[in-house]
Amino acid sequence: MANSSRSEPIEENEPVPFIDLKAQQRRIRSELDAAMARVLDHGQFIMGPEVAELETRLAEFANVRHVITCSSGTDALLMPLMAAEIGLGDAVICPAFTFTATPETIGLIGATPVFVDVDPLTFNIDPSLVAQAVETARGHGLNPKALMSVDLFGQPADYGRLTKIADDLGLFILCDAGQAFGAECLGKKVGQFGCATATSFFPGKPLGCFGDGGAIFTDDDGLAETLRSIRLHGRGSAKYDIVRIGINSRLDTLQAAILIEKLKIFDDELARRDTAAARYSELIGNGAATPFVSPHCRSAWAQYTLKIDPDRRDKVARFLKNSGIPTNVYYPRPLHHQPAYRHFPIAGDCRVSEELPRQVLSLPMHPYLSKTTQIRISEKLQEAIA
Ligand SMILES: *Cc1c(COP(=O)(O)O)cnc(C)c1O
Q1: Residue with the nearest Cα to atom 7 of ligand 1?
Q2: What is the pLDDT of residues 232-246, one digit of tens each?
Q3: Nearest CA to ligand 1 atom 12
Q4: Which of 119, 129, 196, 249 has the most C-beta neighbours closer than 10 Å?
């Protein structure tokens, strides 16, 4: 991109980045260079000392007993399902409006995703529909085993209600916090809910590395031990003692070293995201439906997502694009309409999950958005909507 050394666009129509990873890099470039150089010097590229150090720091950050890093957020979802021995004949309940990786991991282990509708304000799974999904699963001759909740766009799901409902129904909760590391619910950090929480360090996520990476958070000692075995091909206490079928899912030492540096500024970045989100909401006012965050939650603001009249949404997106402002539609289709997932059961009608793809529009969001840029974006948005 032109002008990558400048922190903010100057010309009226100069493109705004959707996520400005370069601004963060400029801030801590020398620390990142030094951290990477240390890894090149010691040469322990697989399971080097930075991996354990990062796990300790992430556990402290989220206030959980165990963190198991791995190769991606997708593997972070897959491994707890493997550890819980969920498979053929089992059902895992998940929202219909989410990223593909959520149901993908359920299908990969041979289980059946049962799709549930989401709340129209938070875009997260509607807790009042979980009991119905259990019935739907049973009606299909499946054993309902787990609930995979998603903290969409950075806002935690309604864990106050979900925890109780899952307890009553005997479901294992696996939290998909792929977009929500750093967020909070009921005064607790994401990572402390459910039986385990999975997150992603994909570069565009709130805490991202420079490649693929992920982590699992749990307070369960037994589960943590099983996950550590699964990530190393199912090994037991000795290297060639294989006690279960596992996978190869280690986080690279280089990525761990990078994440240690990024974690040091993460609290500050989360505060900057809060500021940027509040500023957008104030500037946009009644022009479009601004994001609703539950009073019990703090979002990690992976996305700042508006709801716009479906007849105008695409026109607004085109107008913004022509003004140098990128937007994205997360997600253009509910999962139960995707060719790969169409044949799986849905609980109820999933009407909200079908409407949202025609309404949502995510604006540029990152910790280094300036007030000037946000004013320009909101002015163009008002012009587009008018
Ligand atoms: C990004 C994401 C994942 C998967 O993470 P990867 O690191 O890309 O494998 C899973 N779930 C959600 C909700 C995500 O946003």
Answers
A1: 73
A2: 999 998 888 999 999
A3: 178
A4: 196
Long-range contacts of 282-285 (CB under 8 A, 24+ apart): 283/374, 283/375, 283/378, 284/378, 284/381, 284/382
- Which residues fall within 8 angstroms of residue 84, CB to CB, at 6 or more apart? 145, 146, 172, 174, 195
Report CA(69)–ligand 1 centroid distance (Å). Answer: 14
Q: In the block, which residue shows the tokens 């022009």?
A: 287
- Ligand 1 centre from 173 Cα, in Å? 17
306-357 residue pLDDT tens: 999 999 999 999 999 999 999 999 999 999 999 999 999 999 999 999 999 9
Ligand 1, closest atom to CA 201?
7
* Residues at CB less than 6 angstroms from ligand 1: 72-74, 98-99, 101-102, 150, 176, 178-179, 200, 202, 212, 214
Q: Who's near 143: CB < 8 A, 6+ residues apart? A: 89, 90, 91, 137
Task: Report the distance separating Cα 142 and Cα 383, nearest Å.
Answer: 51
Could you tell which of 19, 70, 99 is best to mutate to test the pocket of ligand 1, judged by most ligand atoms within 8 Å of the CB?
Answer: 99
Closest ligand 1 atom to residue 213 Cα is 7
How many A from CA of 287 to the centre of ligand 1? 31
pLDDT digits (tens, 9 = 90+) for 332-344: 999 999 999 999 9
Tell me the longest C-alpha to C-alpha distance in the chain: 67
Distance CA(52)–CA(297), nearest Å, equals: 30
Q: Which pTM value belongs to this model?
A: 0.96
Residue whose CA lies nearest to ligand 1 atom number 14: 178
Is pLDDT above 70 for 82? Answer: yes
Contact of 359 with 308, CB cutoff 8 Å: yes
Tell me the average pLDDT of the chain.
95
pLDDT of amino acid 2: 39
Q: What is the pLDDT of residue 3?
A: 39
Q: Is 286 exposed, middle or buried (CB count within 10 Å of its CB: 0-12, 13-18, 19+)? A: exposed
Ligand 1 atom having least distance to the Cα of 102: 11
- Which ligand 1 atom sits nearest the alpha carbon of residue 150? 13
Grade residue 88 by pLDDT with cuts at 50, 70 and 90: very high
